């Protein structure tokens, strides 16, 4: 059984993954620099946030997370890749990889963070985080994972039934509400009201009863 605190197992585990990453990593622009602003832009791409100058970026994840629009994942990614802070990144890819390695169907967020931190390669945390995310994105994929190509399959407890881990999240079914509305108003305009409650609360709309 793979124990995250067993140094005899962790060292070869790290060596195999980092060696694979060195030879198979995708050629992505933000991997050519450790400029904190460039890394930040790459990590928050397609997310709405207020950007700050490179001189305003601090090397600690806790400080970065205090900035508007930056969450734990982005803060850890920037801090580890740009500044070498030994903090583990946990995104969807890392969650899937760790769930399969330890055969965890429903890994708790706290367990994921603690496990990722325990496995982190302190010598180059940024490269390690990228290697783990790269593995999840290209090999340990949600469907039809390519276990035969996985550099750490030897350590994976869930490889024989990989798609079982992690279990699919149950989506809450949305309720259906029936309502009647009537349009009243004079020529050139309609009556609108501010809506209350969870269904489009705070938005303006025609009166619905």
Low-confidence runs of at least 5 consecutive residues: 46-50, 52-56
- The H/E string reads HHHHHHHEE
Work out the strand percent: under 5%
Overall helicity: 25-40%
Tell me the structural class. mainly alpha
Number of domains: 2
Number of helices: 7
Describe the protein.
The protein is extended, with a radius of gyration of 23 Å. The longest helix is centred in the first third of the chain and has 18 residues, at 7-24. The chain has helices at 7-24, 36-43, 61-65, 72-83, 92-101, 109-119, 125-138; strands at residues 193-194, 204-205. The chain has 209 residues and is mostly helical. It folds into two domains: 7-164, Endonuclease Iii, domain 2; 179-209, no CATH class. The termini are far apart. The chain contains seven helices and two strands, in the order H-H-H-H-H-H-H-E-E. Helices cover 37% and strands 2% of the residues. The protein has a two-stranded antiparallel ribbon.
Task: Explain the layout of strands and helices.
Blueprint: H1 7-24, H2 36-43, H3 61-65, H4 72-83, H5 92-101, H6 109-119, H7 125-138, E1 193-194, E2 204-205
Antiparallel strand pairs: 1-2
Summarize the structure.
The protein contains 7 helices and 2 strands; from the N terminus they run αααααααββ.
Descriptive tags:
single chain, 209 residues, mainly alpha, Endonuclease Iii, domain 2, two-stranded antiparallel ribbon
């Amino acid at each position: 059984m793979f124990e995250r605190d067993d140094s005899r197992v962790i060292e070869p585990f790290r060596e195999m993954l980092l060696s694979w990453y060195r030879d198979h990593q995708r050629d992505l622009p933000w991997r050519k620099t450790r400029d904190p602003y460039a890394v930040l832009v790459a990590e928050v791409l397609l997310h709405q946030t207020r950007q700050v100058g490179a001189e305003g970026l601090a090397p600690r994840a806790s400080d970065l997370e205090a900035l508007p629009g930056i969450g734990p994942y982005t803060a850890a990614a920037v801090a580890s890749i740009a500044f070498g802070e030994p903090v583990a990144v946990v995104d969807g890819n890392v969650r899937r990889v760790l769930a399969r390695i330890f055969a965890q169907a429903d890994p708790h967020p706290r367990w994921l963070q603690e496990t990722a931190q325990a496995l982190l390669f302190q010598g180059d945390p940024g490269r390690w985080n990228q290697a783990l995310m790269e593995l999840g994105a290209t090999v340990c994929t949600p469907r039809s994972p390519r276990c035969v190509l996985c550099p750490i399959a030897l350590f994976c407890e869930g490889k024989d039934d990989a798609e079982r881990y992690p279990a699919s999240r149950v989506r809450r079914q949305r309720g259906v509400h029936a309502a009647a509305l009537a349009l009243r108003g004079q020529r050139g305009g309609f009556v609108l009201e501010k809506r209350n409650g969870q269904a489009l609360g705070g938005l303006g709309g025609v009166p619905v009863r």
